[in-house]
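Checklist before submission:
- one chain only
- standard amino acids only
- sequence pasted in full

Submission:
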Amino acid sequence: MLKLVVAGAGGRMGQTLTRLIHAHPSCEVAGGLEPKGSPVVGKDQGAVAGLGDIGTLISDDPLSVLVKADAIIDFTLPAASVALAGVAAQARIVHVIGTTGLSTTDEAAIEAASRHARIVKSGNMSLGVNLLAAIVRQVAASLDESFDIEVVEMHHRHKVDAPSGTALLLGNAAAEGRKIDLAGHSVRSRDGHTGARKDGDIGFATLRGGSVVGDHSVVFAGQSERIELSHKAESREIFANGAIKAALWAHDQKPGLYSMTDVLGID
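Returned file contents:
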């Protein structure tokens, strides 16, 4: 039984993870983490997740929890994920990171921690999105710049970062297919008199509202024809299940930084 810790155990994703780990035949809930001052610190993790008491209390002390675990699954905030990567490296365990909005400095710190920890990091943990990214990469490689690329995403009204990590994952896949650097060709906003669209740009459109779990489309717009590739998430369980799969896979790997394409064996 793989002993899994849930970071952000009091949140919506954390509660979903707790329920799915508790029901998984190869995993067990080994702990939950929340920041100091959280109202759920000291409460039973199962009760917070709607399972009833399971005998595991939510803690605000990462090291004491992680030294007794095999892995931690982390859908939190950039600063927390960077700090947890350092602790995971100390404990020599698996760290699955689904946190989005990471800066280049954050990415570098996580990569440094992967010298000692087995880290799986992805902007999206679902099988469908990672298959979509592989298809986007292939289509982008097959079409020249006469086809403009736009990434459109919509999430619930509470999401705090934009574009979403999934949108950036898809944008990077398109850039890789075109053999260009996304940072030099990314267009994140349009307002006022913008002028004509530049060849080779990859545009992003962000929508927020309601309770949308996550909708993503990549549009390849050519002259008189358009290709649209889409994925719609209907439950947070697809991300949680992917993260659990990543933890199980990474447990047998050497220290390093991996992605969901490694976990899923997607070329």
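Reviewer check: The CA atoms of residues 11 and 207 lie 22 Å apart.
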